[in-house]
Amino acid sequence: MQQTDVLSGELGLGPGNKAFKLWLPRLVVFTADAFEEPYAQKILERVKLYGLKYEVSRRVTGLKGASEKETYQNAKSTLAIVKAPPSAFSLRPIPPSADWQFHLAEGCPAHCQYCYLAGSLTGPPAIRVFANLPAILENLVKYTSRSQFVTFEASCYTDPLSLEHLTGGLQETINFFSRLQNTQLRFVTKFDAVAPLLDLEHHNNTRCRISLNAHSIGRKLESGTPAVSARIRALRSLALPKSVGGGGYPVGVVLAPIMPIPNWEQEYGRLLDELSNELDFPCDLTFELITHRFTPGSKDILLKWYPGTTLEMDEQVRIVKRNKFGGIKYVYPKLMMNELKTFFYREISARFPSAKILYWT
Ligand code: SF4
Questions:
Q1: Which of 30, 80, 134, 270 qualifies as a cystine partner to 60, CB 3.0-4.6 A?
Q2: CA of residue 115 to ligand 1 center, whole Å
C-alpha cells in the first residue's frame, strides 16, 4: 500500500476549498486478540504511515481522567482496535432507516452537542473499531434473501467515513456488498473525505447519505466536522456519474436533527437552495427527515460532555413520547411538528421533484 493511497482522502474537493483536517488519535490501542486479525494488520500499516503512537495491550485502559472533561478528552483522542463481541453476530432491526443494523465501529471523533450516541453507548466515548470485520460481513449473508430486498445500516453507532483514512473499513464493506444480490448497504456521514470511495465498483448496492443541517447549527453544534457546504460538495462527488469522475452512487440526504431555530424557514430554505445548486444533474436521491429529540438519559450525558451547550433541551417546551417499553423521549409539540413537516415536504418537492422522502420522524 502506498502512502498516497491512504492519504488520498485528504484531497480537497475543488479549487479554493480547504480540505478538512482528518482526525488523528493521540494513541491507538490494539487489544492482543484483535491484533492477530489480518484486518487489524492492515489498520496497523495505516497507523504507521501516519506516524501514530500505538500499543498492544490486554485491555483498553487509561481512559478515565481526573474529571469528566478529562475522561471525555482521553476517550475522544484514543482509537481502540478490538474484536466485536459474539452479540454483534445477532443483528437487530433498525426501522425506519433499514431492515438490519450492523457495526464497523462504535464511537466517533466529532463533538456534536446533540450526539445520538449519548445514552446509546455506555462508558467514556472512546472510538472502537472492530478487527473482525470480515467475519462481521460474512455473517450478514444469513440475513439476505433471494426473494426480498434487504437493507443494512452501518452508521448507528459511528460515523464510518470519519475513520476511513485509518481503517479502510468502508471500502471493504462497499466491496463486499457489491458482490451481494438484492441488498443495499446504507451509511450516513458528516465527513467529506470521499475520494477513496469514488473508484469503487459498488454496483449500486450502496446508498451513501450525507447528514446536513442549517449552517448556523453546523457551526455552533457540530464541532470536529467539515462545514455544511463541504459536505454538500462531497455529496455531489458521490452522486456524479463515474464518466465525469464521480462515484455514481445512489445518494441520500439525512436532514437531522431538524430544529425550529430563529429564522428556521430562511435557514433551511437556503440549505435546500445550495443543495439543489450542487445537485444540478439527474441522480438517485432520497431524503430522511429527523427532528431533534432527547431522553432524560441522553440529556444528562450531553450536559456532562458539553456543560456550556446552547442546545435547547427544555422539557417545558416539549411533549413526551413513549415507546412500547415505557421509555420516554421529549419531542416538539404537535403544532410545531406539523409546521416543520409541511415546510420540508413542500420545499423538497419543489426543488427535487423526483427525489423520494423516505420518512419523517
Ligand atoms: S457525527 Fe454523529 S456520532 Fe459523531 S459526534 Fe456527531 S452526532 Fe455523534
A1: 80
A2: 5
Alpha helices by DSSP H, listed for 222-323, are 228-239, 264-278, 296-305
H-only helix segments in 115-168: 133-140, 164-167
Nearest to 126 by CA among 97, 100, 105: 105
Nearest atom in ligand 1 to the alpha carbon of residue 118 is 8
Query: What's this model's pTM, rounded to 2 decimal places?
Result: 0.94
Q: Which atom of ligand 1 has the smallest separation from the CA of 222?
A: 6
For the stretch 83-93, pLDDT in tens is 999 999 999 99
Atom of ligand 1 nearest to the CA of 190: 1
For the stretch 296-352, pLDDT in tens is 999 999 999 999 999 999 999 999 999 888 899 999 999 999 999 999 999 999 999
Range list of H helices, 205-295: 215-221, 228-239, 264-278
Cell of 119: 445514552
Dihedral angle over CA of 122, 98, 351, 237, nearest 10: 80
For residues 89 and 84, what is the distance between their CA atoms, to the nearest angstrom? 9
Q: Are 150 and 100 in contact (CB under 8 A)?
A: yes
The structural domains of the chain, ordered by start, are: 3-18+25-360 (3.80.30.30)
Of 356, 342, 201, the closest CA to residue 286 belongs to 356
| CA separation, residue 17 to residues 189, 234, 271 (Å) | 19, 11, 18
Which residues have CB under 6 Å of ligand 1?
108, 110-112, 115-117, 159, 190, 225
